[in-house]
Design brief:
With 351 residues, the chain is an alpha/beta fold. It has helices at residues 2-50, 57-66, 68-101, 156-163, 186-192, 207-212, 219-228, 232-238, 253-266, 283-294, 310-313, 333-339, 342-350, and strands spanning 116-124, 133-141, 145-150, 171-176, 179-180, 193-197, 271-275, 300-304, 318-323, 326-331. The mean pLDDT is 82.
Length: 351
């Protein structure tokens, strides 16, 4: 593992070093060219002025100074071209991902999840011969809460992404009730499933507009979502018309997470996927946000968490422990602690 880590770090460092060298070279050539051009213009102007060609020394200096307005934009062209090239590559990758993962045609999800989400013989890898998940089998019962725990790289976030149809090239099956995920129309799936992630995008608009996403909802439904997500105190202190700032600069991390939860409640999602949503929050705020999620009723909640807080873990209906891309244990907190297996080791080390 140390050798693999060392080789990976070396590759990344070499790539960064090469990029830095190329940037220094391009900037150096650009600056040198500009300096040479200015000096050449100065010499030519001085020659013409000294030889009586109706050109004064002041005119030469003015011309050299004005030349900066030409040289500086030209010097910025190489960097701009490089950024445009990088942006085009990124746009192509995003377009390819959207084309492969978004299905405009397919089956409609039912408005309510009746049985649950069933995963059978699920295997997946981002690269060939490097599986991230291997033969995962589990059924997430409708309306229940699940915690997915495990060490870094065990496949927790990948499993959650697959449940949200981020990739279609998995082996095995993922079924929402009896419908295979790959057959469900994307828009229909997104109406049933909501995701709460670590980074929540907030518009520079009012709290209410950020919750409703600028759509019209009945007043009582918005108030209900505010209450369940724990935003009542914030609304009472600042008012629902309080401007959140650019990307939520006027809100705390916990408040932004609660807005994300309120959005999910307002759209009446049947499934709530939570991916390390509290990782960047302090312990008290993380506990409050996690507790707000667990207090929600009639939702299937699947939470990837790094925080092994006993009081929270005891509230989950089931805990799944992932190791090397497979589920090694599942059960309630007390059941897993009694087994004294892998979960017991994780929990003990974290305390």
């Amino acid at each position: 593992m140390c050798r693999i880590f060392s080789d990976t770090v070396k590759e990344v460092t070499d790539a960064k070093t090469f990029r830095m060298k190329m940037r220094i070279l391009v900037n150096g050539l650009s600056a040198s060219s500009g300096t040479i051009l200015q000096f050449s213009i100065f010499l030519i102007g001085a020659y013409l002025a000294l030889n009586g060609h109706s050109l004064s020394a002041g005119s030469v200096l003015v011309f050299v100074q004005l030349l900066n307005f030409v040289i500086n934009p030209i010097g910025a062209i190489p960097q701009a071209l490089a950024e445009i090239k990088a942006s085009k590559t990124l746009i192509v990758k995003v377009a390819e991902a959207l084309e492969s993962n978004v299905r405009e045609e397919g089956l409609e999800c039912k408005k309510e999840l009746v049985t649950g989400i069933t995963v059978e013989d699920l295997s997946f890898g981002y690269e060939e011969e490097k599986p991230v998940l291997q033969d995962v089998n589990f059924t997430f019962g409708a309306g229940k809460s699940y915690a997915i725990v495990g060490s870094s790289g065990s496949g927790k976030s990948t499993l959650l992404n697959l449940l949200m149809a981020s990739h279609n090239d998995y082996a095995g099956s993922i079924r929402y009730d009896e419908t295979e995920l790959r057959q469900i129309r994307s828009e229909s799936l997104y109406e049933m499933v909501s995701v709460v992630q670590q980074n929540v995008f907030i518009f520079n608009a009012s709290i209410r507009d950020n919750i409703t996403m600028f759509s019209d909802f009945p007043r009582e439904e918005v108030d209900h979502a505010i209450k369940l997500s724990g935003l009542s105190k914030l609304i009472a202190e600042r008012g629902e018309n309080y401007l959140c700032g650019e990307n939520g600069s006027g809100l705390s991390g916990g408040e932004k997470q609660r807005i994300s939860i309120a959005r999910s409640l307002l759209k009446k999602s049947q499934v709530l996927l939570v991916d390390e949503a509290t990782a960047a929050l302090d312990a008290q705020t993380a506990f409050q946000v996690s507790n707000a999620i667990l207090d929600l009723n009639d939702l299937t909640r699947i939470v990837v968490t790094h925080s092994l807080d006993e009081n929270l873990l005891k509230k989950y209906d089931c805990i799944l422990t992932l190791k090397n891309g497979s589920i090694t244990e599942s059960g309630s907190f007390d059941e897993l602690m009694e087994k004294k297996g892998y979960f017991y080791s994780l929990f003990t080390v974290s305390q």
